[in-house]
Amino acid sequence: MIVAALALLLGGLIGVLWNVSVPTGLEPYLPIAVVAALDALFGGLRAKLDKVFDEKVFVVSFIANTVVAALIVFLGDKLGVGAQLSLGVVVVLGIRIFSNVAAIRRHLFKA
Amino acid sequence: MNAMRNFARAVRTNGIVAALLVGLLGFALTTQLRRDEGSEFDSAREGDLVRILDELEGRRERLRIEISDVNDRLDAVTSQKLGAQAAVTEARRRADELAIFAGTVPVRGPGVLLTLRKDSKVPDANRVLDAVQELRGAGAEGMQISGASGETVRIVVSTYFVAADGGAIEVDGKTVTAPFVITAIGDPPTIKAALEIPGGVVDTIKRAGGRAKIEEHEDVTVDAVAVSQAPRYAKPAP
């Protein structure tokens, strides 16, 4: 877990220092992808605290979440319901993040 | 199924991949946050952009109508101001005109000098008045009479000529002695022609033995001024 935390910080640092410009084609989907990845991260964190963490599961869920979320938004844009679908995706991801964070909270603070 | 389990066992990478993905997440997160320092339009989607464009166009339309309204009001106020200014300019012009005719300001312009010489027969007050009337009839716009004694009197509507002692003439209370020089501002040829018509002033004076000389000038100055007097009896009729 320490390794993961360090990796997060390192990645963040690289992102701050290395001012890479996002390819315009990917730009609208990056926020959604980030939120989906965050959901996977919290899911992994909760699993770790529940002592059921499996790296394979984490990796697969991370990649799957990100790709599926971006795909759904992309499809929605093409179909013309981009705003609604992206809203739906964000809501669902938000709910999952909330529930994972609540479980983590219960573990950490026993409350 | 077995193939999958074998694959999963082979892929046991001891947390490196997970760490890599988490690092990637951190990177993407900060990159996205930095992106938001830029315009909000960069990451907006087409639908949002169209909506924003519609809103902006609506606002532009409303603002254009407002601009046109304000411009109209500006025009109205400006023309009002111009109207007032024009009225003031007109009033000033009229005042200047009236001042010229009332003799309260010195005037200059093309004109003639009419000299009435003293001879055996001196031009009397009547003759001088005739001369003044003829000059007026010929379009003289500013006149003054000066005499040998150096007195100069502006001739205005209310000017009177009365015979005085010794061949002099009293003009508006001042005594003017011969020879009289009447300076008149107007169109020189017209005035000269009017004065010299048979039976006119010059003719009459010559016949009576006096001498009259007319000089045309490009630029003469009538610098005597009359004191304007408010009428005591007359009032403007409504």
What does the model show?
With 111 residues, chain A is mostly helical. Chain A has helices spanning 2-17, 30-49, 55-79, 82-109. The mean pLDDT of chain A is 88. Chain B has 238 residues and is α+β, with helices and mostly antiparallel strands. In chain B, strand 2 and strand 3 form a beta hairpin. The mean pLDDT of chain B is 83. The chains are: A mainly alpha (111), B alpha+beta (238). Chains A and B meet through helix 1, helix 2, helix 3 and helix 4 of A and helix 2 and helix 3 of B.
List the helices and strands and how they pair.
The complex is a heterodimer of chains A (111) and B (238).
Chain A: H1 2-17, H2 30-49, H3 55-79, H4 82-109
Helix pairs in contact in A: 2-3, 2-4, 3-4
Chain B: H1 2-10, H2 16-35, H3 46-102, E1 107-117, H4 125-137, E2 142-146, E3 152-155, E4 161-163, E5 169-171, E6 174-176, E7 180-185, H5 188-195, H6 201-207, E8 211-222
Antiparallel strand pairs in B: 1-7, 1-8, 2-3, 2-7, 4-5, 5-6
Helix pairs in contact in B: 4-6
Nutshell version of this structure?
With 111 residues, chain A is mainly α. Chain A is built from four helices and no strands. The interface between A and B is medium-sized, with 37 and 31 residues.
Number of strands of chain B: 8
Mean residue pLDDT of chain B: 83
Shape of chain A: globular
Number of strands of chain A: 0
Secondary structure class of chain A reads mainly alpha
Main sheet attributes: strand count, strand direction, barrel closure of chain A: none
The low-confidence parts of chain B are none
Structural class of chain B: alpha+beta
Helix content of chain B: 40-55%
Any idea what the radius of gyration of chain B is?
Answer: 48 Å
Question: How many helical stretches of chain B?
Answer: 6
The N- to C-terminal Cα distance of chain A equals 22 Å
| Coarse morphology of chain B | rod-shaped
Mean pLDDT level of chain A: 88
Q: What about the largest sheet of chain B?
A: 5 strands, antiparallel
Widest sheet of chain B: strand order?
Answer: 3-2-7-1-8
Name the beta content range of chain A: under 5%
